[in-house]
Structure formats: structure tokens, C-alpha cells
Amino acid sequence: MSQKNEFPNFPADCKSMLCKYLTKEVFEELKDKKTSNGFTLKDAINSGVKNIDSGIGVYAGDEESYTVFAKLFDPIIQEYHGFGPNDSHKSNLNPDDLDAPNPDPEGKYIISTRIRVGRNVANLPLGPAITKDQRNQVEQDVSAALNNLDDKLAGTYYPLTGMSESVSAQLIADHFLFKAGDRFLEAAGLNRDWPQGRGIYHNDEKTFLVWVNEEDQLRIISMQMGGDIKEVFTRLATAIKEIEKKVTFSYSPHLGYITSCPTNLGTAMRASVHIALPKLAKDMETFKAITDKHHLQIRGIHGEHSESEGGVYDISNRRRLGVTEVQCVQDMHDGVVALIEKEKSL
Ligand code: ADP
Ligand code: CIR
Question: How many CA atoms lie within 13 A of 132 on its CB side?
């Protein structure tokens, strides 16, 4: 990183929200500010400065970053979530409020369903500003809490340190584990001291998993083959409640669950299916019209910034803040029903 605290030069074709909203005026106003954890504007924007193909390009080092650097974060939050500085967030994790019968009971289109939430521990910096000791303490406390879970959530915590290359490669290929060396996270300071302090907890069936100290301190995940969205949501809601008995999460009435990336604020929930839509894939305009209408995002099948393979896509809710968890999953369900209907008609 350049040592100078100068306005970054973005190329003319840069499309990130960072280059859109970091005007010279905003830069001048924020460039010498820091949070009480010492997190600066330069730290917050480094990922988008180093990766000019970022969609967003900014990360928070702590909850305070969202107020100290509000002139930059607020317009990004407004554009991504449609959520203003005076709006407030509300949470609803009650599966009884979800109307989501399996959109594909014959299993012709939906390969698998996954719902995750991000969580961070209250009163600690977020990953981009956390110290090594704090990160290791989070790992200790969270793995101890997880090792207390029982019944269908009972499982084992596997630290990344000491995990063989072949085991981690298989877990990544099977969509269970986060990948190493992500350049967006690297530039955000989220890969410091890798692999120490990181790991994955899962039950035997690998239907309930928790990532520890990746982009957020916890990513709580429920997943299974097929399209039973309600079962996946119910398992997730139960797991969150159990973990909350032992760990207090960072939550604000305005921004909901606090996360390092502003796209994850609020519910911090991404509910997705891996779905085969080979015919619709040949008409991306129609495909995108349906996903836009239902507030959905299209990713490739190896996660963010990956490509589709064989007409299989990762379809998930886009909005996470100012809508409840039930609404996030409802968005995904209703959009998937519409996508399958269209695919059938082609
Ligand atoms: P995140 O879900 O935390 O936003 P990614 O987009 O990188 O992060 O996805 C993480 C992993 O989860 C990737 O391996 C991705 O393929 C996998 N994944 C996402 N949705 C599904 C799904 N519905 N079924 C199976 N694997 C999935
Ligand atoms: C980027 O800006 O592309 C990365 N920092 C990831 C942003 C989060 N992704 C998203 O759209 N949900």
C-alpha cells in the first residue's frame, strides 16, 4: 500500500460503489479520521483501491467505522439495500412466518439449498481491525460454545492450522469451506496471520456448519441437498438461538447485525439455491429481469466472483438490511418459483 494519504486514482471504467461515492470532497473530509481501534479511511478503502473490479470495495473495521466514515458508507448502504440513515432494522427468524413450500419437489432443477448468516462478537473490532490475540480468543470462545451443542447440531471444530491440503481442498470443492487467499479479503486485512485462528465446525451430516474468523467472526450455515427451504431455515434459526445462549453478538437497532462488509448488514443473511437453468441461461436479459424483480443476486457455483458451470447458478436474496430474515428467504423462494416456471416454459 502506498504510504501517502492521497486521493486514489480509479480508472475511468471502474464500476465499484467506492469509486462512485468516494468523491474528492468526501475523501478530504474523512482522510484523517480514525475510529477508537485506530481504523482509518485508507484501511476501509484498501480492498477497492487494490481491486478495481470490486462491486463494492469497502470494509468496516468496527461498528464505529459506520458512523466515523458515514459520508462514504451511507450512500453505499442506501444504494445496495435501499436503506436510509434514519431507517431502522427489524429481525424475524420465526420459521412459522415463512411461506416456502419446496419449489421443486421432483428435484429437477434445485441441486441444493444453503442459508447463512454472518455474526460478530459484541465489543470487539471486526476482522479487518482485530488483533491476533483477539482473533485467537474469538476462536477459543466460539469453538467452546459450539462444542456444547447437542442433538442434530452436535459436531466437531476443525482448526485450519494443521488441516491437510487435501482435506481443505475437498471441503472447498464440496462447497463447505471458505477458500484461502481471496484477494478482496487480503487487501481488507482479513487474511492477516492466516491460517491461525480460523476453522470450521460441522455436524456429521454437514448440514450445519460454522466458519470461524473468515470475513466475519462467525458465518452460521445450514445447508442440504434439494429444495426444502423451510427445513434449512428452521435448522438455522434453531442453531442461532442455541449459539446466542453462549455468545453475545454485535447488533445495532439501526444497522442490525454488524458485519465487516456493508452488503451484509442487517440480517447478514444470504439464502441461496444451486439451480440448473440451462435454457434461461441462454437469455440473460429475461433471466436478469426475473432476478431483479425478486431482489435476487446471481453468482457462479464456487461462490462470489466465480462463474456458472453447465447452466447451474447460485441464486440468492440481494437485500439484507431493512427487511427481516423471513423476507430474505421469501424473496429467494418466490424468485426461484418464478425462475423454474420460466425455465419450464422454454
Ligand atoms: P457467502 O455465502 O458467505 O456469501 P460465497 O458466495 O463465497 O460466500 O459462498 C460460499 C460457499 O458456499 C461456496 O463454496 C458456494 O459455492 C457455496 N454455496 C452457496 N450457496 C450454495 C448452495 N445453495 N448449495 C451449495 N453450496 C452453496
Ligand atoms: C467486492 O466489492 O466485490 C467485494 N468486496 C465483495 C462485496 C460483497 N459482495 C456482494 O455483492 N454481496
Answer: 5
